[in-house]
Design a protein that fits this description.
By secondary structure, this protein is an alpha+beta fold. Helices cover 54% and strands 23% of the residues. The chain has 6 helices and 5 strands.
Length: 175
């Protein structure tokens, strides 16, 4: 969440907190809320100020709605190289195929679900996998991590910053 959105949410929450306090005081038959409302709407200038504040609150509400429902852009392709002759990119499905090819020769992997994200340092490969229970998880995990990273760098020309593994019993979890 960006700093600007945090500030808008903070001000937005403060305004609603004040509105809730005024509503609660009015519900308890306190005369102050009605006095404040009459004072705020007594002159043309004060009506103008109340109108401007209301418009700002409306704009903040719309900004919050847009920020909440705005989807993060999905990673569709990764730029491999850009130069004077043009650029080379690989789609995420193609990267997933490369990951599957890299892992295929490794004994003990039963099922795998790859996911690809991008960071400043390079790709972050997330692998949700099931392995044979009789194998050593640390040894097999390290072998998978190094194989995938090296394969993507050699074959795809991709900079991989990290390979994250989640070892799970995927076929049993899917039932």
């Amino acid at each position: 969440m960006s700093g600007t959105l945090r500030l808008v949410l903070f001000v937005y929450n403060l305004l609603f907190l004040a509105l809730a306090g005024v509503s609660l005081a009015a519900a308890l038959n306190r005369p102050e809320p009605m006095n404040y409302i009459q004072w705020a709407l007594a002159t043309t200038e004060s009506k103008l100020i109340v109108g401007i504040v209301s418009l700002l609150l409306l704009a903040a509400t719309l900004a919050v709605f847009v920020a909440i429902f705005k989807r993060e852009p999905r990673l569709e392709q990764v730029l491999v190289k850009q130069g004077l002759q043009g650029e080379i990119a690989i789609t995420v499905p193609a990267i997933k195929v490369l990951i599957m090819k890299a892992i295929k020769p490794i004994e003990g992997v039963r099922d795998i679900r790859p996911d690809v994200a991008q960071s400043v340092e390079g790709l972050i490969i997330k692998l949700h996998m099931a392995i044979n229970p009789e194998l050593s998880v640390p040894e097999l995990s390290q072998q998978i991590q190094s194989t995938v990273k090296q394969y993507l760098q050699d074959i795809g020309g991709l900079q991989v910053s990290e390979v994250r593994l989640l070892v799970d019993d995927i076929p049993a979890a899917g039932r």
